[in-house]
Specification:
Helices cover 35% and strands 22% of the residues. It has a five-stranded mixed β-sheet with strand order 1-2-3-4-5, sandwiched between helices. A hairpin with a 3-residue loop joins strand 2 and strand 3 (79-89). It has a single domain, classed as Gcn5-related N-acetyltransferase (GNAT) (Aminopeptidase, 3-Layer(aba) Sandwich), CATH 3.40.630. With 171 residues, the chain is of the alpha+beta class. It is globular, with a radius of gyration of 16 Å.
């Protein structure tokens, strides 16, 4: 990948895909998994890259098979990033729409980060979500991922839920 070309957003194209392109996600997922392992390994144990991809692939296959999800690839000559958008019913308690779109995953290869690829993917996700009837985007992220938090805040997201974990395995 030519990183200089990535700096020019006109070189990147966003491609909508489904199950037929799932194998193209693997190296991008692994890059994100490695990043998460680096920034959060002290919080909880991390699965191996192979096990993580096996589980994530199964989850993506289910969503893509029932048409509740879409893969958006950012491509130069090859994929440099992807966003998995998952459509879900709106929550019963909050008046944020009957359908919401969850950004399940946003991953950009390390060499392509900070060149506007995430911004392009988010713009495409907004369009896709609106076309599919959503009025709200949602995303969950590791609380240790400060870079992602700043990115999503710049994209108009704000904190809403807080998820907490407690181990009950050895009580």
């Amino acid at each position: 990948m030519n990183v200089a070309a990535v700096a020019d957003a006109s070189k990147i194209r966003i491609v909508r895909a489904g199950l037929e392109r799932l194998d193209d996600v693997e190296p991008l997922w692994r890059a994100l998994r490695d990043h998460h392992a680096d920034i959060a390994a002290t919080l909880v144990p991390v699965r191996s890259a192979e096990e993580s991809w096996r589980r994530r692939r199964a989850e993506y296959t289910e969503w893509l098979s029932d048409s509740s999800a879409t893969i958006l690839f950012a491509e130069e000559d090859a994929p440099v990033g992807y966003l998995m958008l998952h459509m879900m019913p709106g929550p019963p308690s909050w008046a944020i729409g009957d359908r919401i779109a969850e950004v399940e995953t946003l991953s950009i290869l390390p060499a392509a980060r900070d060149h506007g690829v995430g911004k392009l993917l988010m713009a495409a996700a907004r369009r896709e979500a609106r076309e599919r009837g959503a009025t709200t985007l949602s995303v969950a992220l590791l609380h240790t991922n400060e870079g992602a938090r700043r990115f999503y805040e710049r994209e108009g997201f704000h904190s809403f839920y807080l998820t907490m974990l407690a181990s009950i395995a050895q009580e």
